[in-house]
Amino acid sequence: MRELVPTCDPEGVYSVKRTCAELGVSYKTLRKYKASGYIKPLNPDNASRPKYSGQSIIDCWKLLTTL
Hints:
The protein is mainly α and 67 residues long. The chain has one domain (13-66): Multidrug-efflux Transporter Regulator, Chain: A, Domain 2, CATH 1.10.1660. The protein contains three helices and two strands. The chain is globular.
């Protein structure tokens, strides 16, 4: 996980690859975060291509740095 706050746009929509880059984690770790409820995709019905909002990426980072 990155030590600095993600620099993504809170209004933006991001792919799994870009979300992982912003958080500094692998896609497997992102999947664990999603299963644990730390981050929620914008389109939960589409399991094959989830998209994440920039605000949810920032919120996830803030939550995980306080654990």
